[in-house]
Amino acid sequence: MTAKRNFFGRAFAVLGAASAAAAAVEGGRKPRARDLTTLGIDPASFPAANRRA
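The chain above was modelled as a monomer; its predicted structure follows.
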């Protein structure tokens, strides 16, 4: 039972981080380091935020 809880908890964490990161990029902001780390992305390698004109 614990393995299932871990799987679903991790799945929800990844979905939440993906949603938050996508919203940040859409808004021209850099996603939070925590969200990038959850997605397996090194925050230092993520490009700086690009503001839309």
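Helices lie at 2-26, 33-38.
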